Amino acid sequence: MSDIRCVAESGDELGEGPVWVAAEGRLYWFDIHGRRLHWLEHASGATGEFSLPVRASVAAPRRDGGLILVTEAGLATFDTAAGKFELRQPLTFEPGFRTNDGKIDVAGRLWWSSMDDDGGKRPGALYRTDPDGRTHRVLEGLHIANTVSCSPDGATMYLADSRLSTLWAFPIGADGALGERRAFIDTRGSDGAPDGSAVDAEDYVWNAQWGAWRIVRYAPDGAIDRIVSFPVAHVSSCAFGGPDLTTLYVTTAKEHLSAEARAAQPLAGHLFAFEPGVAGLALPTFDGEIGAA
Predict the structure, then answer these.
(1) What is the largest CA-CA distance in the chain?
(2) Which of 63, 169, 235, 266 has its CA at a distance of 20 to 30 angstroms from the CA of residue 211?
(3) For the chain, what is the radius of gyration of the CA atoms?
(4) Which of 23, 29, 35, 36 is nearest to 65 (CA)?
(5) How many helices (H) and strands (E) does the chain have?
């Protein structure tokens, strides 16, 4: 495994939603509260950002180029060449709610979550947007739904509720329905909560743990395989990138850090990367069109 390095001084209040776009050779990620969409070119290290009209938290590459964005106003397309945002499927959430985590699965379905921005006090939900463009509310009663990642065979959905310090595994039916959940990991009693994840080609789950200064790699049976320490407390999510998917990119946050903690963690909110010695799971593009819900 290579050393951890800071690859973009993005200074995100809430860095989230990293996604690799192979066609562009770029990693994209969000500062949710800053309404910013960042990009990093893997080969050159060049960076840039776009300002967004609303808060967004999830992206998936489109077959025909650009991105699908999941935002607090609904689903949108984003032309990364022109910097053009277009709301395509308006959705209404309860006042004070926004979207949070999400990812496309190996079948090409886009999964994403909503949450109460007041620390998840009121429960949100998990949604699935199918390639036909229709969006379905799949699971309710989730406070801070994170991870939202599938196994390499597409048969398992890994889903965390950070407020409950629990990460579950659900069987996924051919139609995208979720079966009965089983406990995968539980971090109660530790310093952190399970946040965003990336699954590698060996079906191990790399889980960013908010407040715990670390990413943990879990085996398919939930056993801890490896702990990777970070120089910041709020490690929020991760995604494999690079031509061979052998670089793990990691977002972080400054949110909820005191002035003293921010001074002690000058790298908080920046983007990190390292080579873990294993390739990530290759995910498809979103091949459908987004229209009315």
Answers:
(1) 50
(2) 169
(3) 17
(4) 23
(5) 1, 24
Strands 182-186 and 166-171: antiparallel
8 A C-beta contact, residue 241 and residue 247: yes
Q: Which domains does the chain show, CATH number per domain?
A: 5-274 (2.120.10.30)
pLDDT at 37 over 90: yes
Report in angstroms the alpha-carbon separations of 177 from 26, 126, 170, 171, 198.
32, 12, 10, 8, 21
Average pLDDT, the chain: 96
3-state secondary structure (DSSP) of residue 241: strand
3-class SS of residue 263: helix
Which pLDDT tens digit goes with each residue over 110-135? Answer: 999 999 999 999 999 999 999 999 99
Measured distance CA(245)–CA(200) in Å, rounded? 9
pLDDT band at 293 (very low <50, low <70, confident <90, very high): low
pLDDT in tens, 74-105: 999 999 999 999 999 999 999 999 999 999 99
Contacts 24+ apart (CB under 8 A), 65-72: 65/23, 67/19, 67/21, 67/28, 68/110, 68/129, 68/286, 68/290, 69/37, 70/99, 70/102, 70/110, 70/112, 71/99, 72/97, 72/98, 72/99
Percent of the chain with pLDDT over 70: 99
Catalytic residues: 195
Q: Are the C-beta atoms of 168 and 180 separated by less than 8 Å?
A: no
